[in-house]
Design goal:
The chain is mainly beta. The chain contains 2 helices and 25 strands. It folds into 2 domains: 94 residues, Rossmann fold, CATH 3.40.50.20; 109 residues, 3 Solenoid (UDP N-Acetylglucosamine Acyltransferase, domain 1), CATH 2.160.10.10. β24 and β25 form a beta hairpin. The protein starts with 8 loop residues before the first strand and ends with a strand. Keywords: Transferase.
Length: 219
């Protein structure tokens, strides 16, 4: 086991509710020597995201002692990707890090890219794959052989059957269910509580039981 001083200091970027979830999971994991937060909103600077987790101005991050880790905790998929790219360019000394809550169940054969958040009570099944920056929120199940592309968000309580594919930056809404072998397209949205019985095309928004396209809506 590495000494505490060998562990990186984690920067959680995003001082909202999702940032608190990420910071709490990081603290519970014991994988970091400490956690600080940052945000572009000046009103957040000098506050605490959680007790003992100060919110710093972005300009202060470059002066933090290494080793550093970075996690962008923003629920909006395009914004999360944009901020990740910008921060990695400005903080090359910080390693993009995945956070796994110790009460999540992650199969040893699952493949998890950097920048993901896997929260409490999640299940990531055997041979599942998560791309960069994926969020798997509280209590979600990503079953065996699922493929979740980068920057997608699997909301709380989602159930994905085996071998489901979720496209880049898609949102699978809270409490929804996707039956095995189906595909949620890139930038698509599945509404909360929906049950998907067929493939959801790229860029479309569906909801309901069974899920159907929302009139006049696109993701």
């Amino acid at each position: 086991m590495s000494a505490p001083s060998d562990k990186p200091l984690l920067i959680v970027f995003g001082a909202g509710g999702h940032g608190r979830v990420a910071a709490d999971a990081a603290l519970c994991s014991g994988a970091f020597r400490g956690v600080v937060a940052s945000d572009r909103n000046p009103a957040a600077w000098g506050t605490a995201l959680l007790p003992g987790v100060p919110v710093l101005a972005p300009e202060a991050l470059a002066g933090l002692p290494t080793p550093l880790a970075l996690h962008v905790a923003i629920g909006n998929n395009p914004v999360r990707r944009q901020e990740t790219d910008q921060l990695r360019a400005g903080l090359p000394q910080a390693t993009l890090s995945t956070i796994v809550h110790p009460h999540a169940s992650v199969a040893v054969t699952a493949r998890i890219a950097p920048g993901c958040l896997i929260t409490a009570q999640c299940v990531i099944g055997p041979l599942a794959e998560l791309g960069a920056g994926v969020i798997v929120n509280h209590g979600a199940v990503v079953d065996h052989d699922c493929r979740i592309a980068a920057w997608a968000h699997i909301a709380p309580g989602v159930k994905l059957g085996g071998a489901v594919r979720v496209g880049e930056a898609a949102l699978v809404g809270a409490g929804s269910t996707v039956l095995r072998n189906l595909h949620v397209g890139r930038n698509a949205t599945l509404g909360a509580g929906a049950v998907l019985l067929q493939d959801l095309p790229e860029g479309q928004a569906w909801a309901g039981v069974p899920a159907r396209p929302l009139q006049g809506a696109s993701a």
